[in-house]
Amino acid sequence: MSPADIKGLIRTVPDFPAAGIQFRDITTLIAHGKGFAATIDHLVERAAKTRSGAVAGIEARGFIFGAAIAARLGLGFIPVRKAGKLPVEALGIDYSLEYGSARIEIDSGAIEQGERVLLVDDLIATGGTALAGAKLLRQAGAVVDHALFVIDLPDLGGAAALRAAGVAAEALIDFSGH
């Protein structure tokens, strides 16, 4: 399946979570066996070029794609979790959201100093969470110079913000608007 075919499997839900938002719902994509497999194939092809030693996925949907990429490439997977979800000592970072703040954390022993880590999530919008993830992984000693997404919302500027922070951001497909 081509990226255009994959794009056709993503459902758009109008006015969610607020009026005027066009929510890009990947549940229809991951429920489609051939579409999901093709998505992973495309992402793995791109991920292999980064020469990463591990894959970090952002909770929650980044776990779906990041873990599949890591398994396919024989790499370890590092979950970037919401605050308070790890049962061990964690490194964390607070970051701003449009209407407040949030915190993400990683296992403090998950990364070897200088390890090249690929950051993965399902979608990049404003880039706040992805930027925080890259910063957190770097604070832990990782080299983070690539990020992969299934969907980019380029009008919101997240991929451009990542590139400005020294992270090459690539998405399989994009949707205009919000």
Automatic annotation (TrEMBL):
Q: Which residues form the Phosphoribosyltransferase domain?
A: 39-142
| Subcellular localization(s) per the UniProt record | Cytoplasm
Pathway membership, UniProt: Purine metabolism; AMP biosynthesis via salvage pathway; AMP from adenine: step 1/1
Q: Which family does it belong to?
A: Belongs to the purine/pyrimidine phosphoribosyltransferase family.
Q: How does it assemble?
A: Homodimer.
Q: What does this protein do?
A: Catalyzes a salvage reaction resulting in the formation of AMP, that is energically less costly than de novo synthesis.
Query: What is the name listed in the Swiss-Prot or TrEMBL entry for this protein?
Result: Adenine phosphoribosyltransferase
Species name? Croceibacterium selenioxidans
- Encoded by which gene? apt
